Amino acid sequence: MNIGKGKIVTISYLLKNGAGEELDKADAKEPLVYLHGMGQLVPGLEKELDGLKAGDKKAKLEIAPEEAYGDMREDLRLTVKRSQFPADAEVQPGMRFWANTDDGNQHPFTVTGVTDEEVEIDGNHPLAGETLFFDIEVHGVRDATKEEMEHGHAHGEGGHQH
Ligand code: ZN
Predict the structure, then answer these.
(1) Which 8-state DSSP code applies to residue 116?
(2) Cβ proximity of 109 and 123 under 8 Å
(3) In the 8-state DSSP scheme, what is residue 49?
(4) pTM for this model (two decimals)
(5) CA of 56 to the centre of ligand 1 (A)
(6) Residue pLDDT, tens place only, 95-129
């Protein structure tokens, strides 16, 4: 059975950046189980997996930023007033929170700098602007159940348990 929209796919992967640093992985003991074609993986990786079957492997797949977490957006790097945060909030670099952007969407931000008056925040994904390199192996492909399609995710081992 080949990977396509509506299949439950089990993969292991190793993700590195352009400098060869390991960013993330899922090994064969604790693989990633996901519903294909629903945007649960970055678009470039879903495209590469499309049509593969159990046992297939690919090494050093190169995924450009626009097919991964997008380019770095300067408009998501902002300086806001300290007073915009609750007075009792402990605002420090690394703190993450959700805020509305100009387009009206909720967006996750990370605090990157704090002074007495101002707070620098960055809404870019930590991997924005990065070219990603994946080694992948497909361990299983099956049809999604009707319930999985309705929920939009995989159930069972490695998937949602509910
Ligand atoms: Zn579910």
Answers:
(1) S
(2) yes
(3) H
(4) 0.81
(5) 27
(6) 999 988 777 888 899 999 999 999 999 999 989 99
Amino acid (1-letter code) at residue 100: N
Q: Which residue has the tokens 């994904």?
A: 125
> How far away, in angstroms, is 161 Cα from ligand 1 center?
7
Cα(103)–Cα(120) distance, rounded to whole angstroms?
20
For 120-125, the CB contacts below 8 A with 24+ separation are: 120/77, 120/78, 120/79, 121/77, 121/78, 121/79, 121/80, 122/76, 122/77, 122/78, 123/73, 123/76, 123/77, 123/78, 123/99, 124/70, 124/72, 124/73, 124/76, 124/77, 125/69, 125/70
CA separation for the pair 98, 17 (Å, rounded)? 26
Residue at token pair 């390991």: 22
Residue type, position 162, single letter: H
CA distances from 36 to 9, 45, 56, 82 (A): 7, 11, 16, 42
Q: How many angstroms does the Cα of residue 156 sit away from the middle of ligand 1?
A: 9
pLDDT, one tens digit per residue, over 42-72 is 999 999 999 999 999 999 999 999 999 999 9
